[in-house]
Amino acid sequence: MPKSNLDLICECDNFPYPDSPAYSPLISSYYKFQLLTTWDAECTIHVKVGYLLPSTVQRMPWTPSFTISHLTRTVSIPYSPASDESSILHTQLTLARSQRTFAVLTGWRNELYPVHGLNRPVAMERAGSALFGIHTTGVHMIGYTFSSPTKTLDSLQIWVPRRAQTKQTYGGMLDNTVAGGIATGEDQFESLVREAGEEASLPEEFVRKEARAAGAVSYFHVRDWRAGGEEGLLQPETQFVYDLEMPADMVPRPSDDEVERFSLMGVEELEGALRSGEFKPNCAVCLVDFFVRRGVLSAREEGDYLEICQRMHRRIAFE
Question: Residues near 21 by Cβ (< 8 Å), separated by ≥ 6?
Fold first, then answer.
């Protein structure tokens, strides 16, 4: 059955909302990953920065650096000024990887993601971020051109890559022109420039001059089999979105084995690929967001317009 635009958003933003009957039972079953945000001899304040599945807590070969409370359903790292939480997390995930505890860690990236919500830098291996259910961020850019000098919507075309079938996550699915995670210590725009060169061989000078920031989308995703590794892991994300109008003679090209090819697709073809579920879930959200911003999708013909717009900008919070 063809997917509606709202179906596409719900497929990505598929974690229950607080007003849903499913929310409270689900939240109460998770373990909260919490770290201290302030510390002194008289006052300690914890902040929740992620959710772990009960199965993750049960299977993880925990080191003594962690405190696990089954009563309060929390996972924490006792803090002192001498603590190095990033190293503790690295040691923990390295141990789990060496014991082959979790399939998701076979996609080890040697790339660090920041743990958001703290007053100090803490980071963990990207492949382990979904095990701890932390809020991650990335960049997505739509590279587009027009088949007509009048630049009408019916002449709009977008460069779309198809992910390699061998890729561990969402193999064979359609993606956005440029997309990737923001590593620890990396600025959003610098991440975009780097990814544009690595994934699409786009000239750095052109991207720096012509890429336009266009806001952000946020969602709370529960991973399925297509993401690789364990199903049900939690992935709350924010994607900073950019637009890049490209000249007709500029063609993105794969620079590694993660992309099979780039294709230039018009609006009608893009809408068909969305309806048939060919796009990676978060890429579909970013593409729908682009359609809203460009007037391809409006309240006149889309009955779920308001809900779509609201669901693409979810507030990420841990309770």
Answer: none
